[in-house]
Amino acid sequence: GDSVTQMEGPVTLSEEAFLTINCTYTATGYPSLFWYVQYPGEGLQLLLKATKADDKGSNKGFEATYRKETTSFHLEKGSVQVSDSAVYFCALSDRFNDMRFGAGTRLTVKP
Amino acid sequence: GAVVSQHPSRVICKSGTSVKIECRSLDFQATTMFWYRQFPKQSLMLMATSNEGSKATYEQGVEKDKFLINHASLTLSTLTVTSAHPEDSSFYICSAMGQGARPNTEAFFGQGTRLTVV
After folding, report:
1. Which of chain A's residues have a Cβ under 8 Å away from the Cβ of B91?
2. Does A87 touch chain B (CB under 8 A)?
3. Angstroms from A103 CA to nearest CA on chain B
4. Starting from the edge strand earliest in sequence, which strands make up the sheet with A56-59, in order?
């Protein structure tokens, strides 16, 4: 079935460092792709999404591009802040419209 | 990683009946569980947050009497869709976090339940 493989964490960065969290997927057809963020003690929040190849999702300085040729949707941010510390989940919505999640990557940003 | 089992994975029910969805943490104590719903071609929507032994906290716009959440033990939370109607047809997914799950600040997801009300 459709699945998402996400870079294992945890990831620890200094403030203003560049962030990349890798995500690749396996899917039949053309899934929609998502990045969700979860702050401590809270539920998931949608960070960004892309619905077709070459689409770029962006929000709060985060970006991810839907790459069909490499089946990837890597999350990037040019300069992270302490407030970006959270767990990030890559996900896809498969042909049945069911959501499949990666394992999550915990990011800690130190001042 | 920790394992969360959600059951059933798919269910079809008649309009007016109630459906119960179970979410179990198999190898850790889930002090907090989240219930989400996904509308077609949209992202997940958080429905409610439940802490073991307490009443669930529902998000704005979610009907408490329609979507009953029980989190009576550290390993089980249930979502009951009462008097289901076709517009309740959706994908429901739970996630759990708590003691024993490593790291304990991450949430682990169930497999999801596809509910179809006919």
Report:
1. 97-99
2. yes
3. 8
4. A19-21, A75-77, A62-65, A56-59
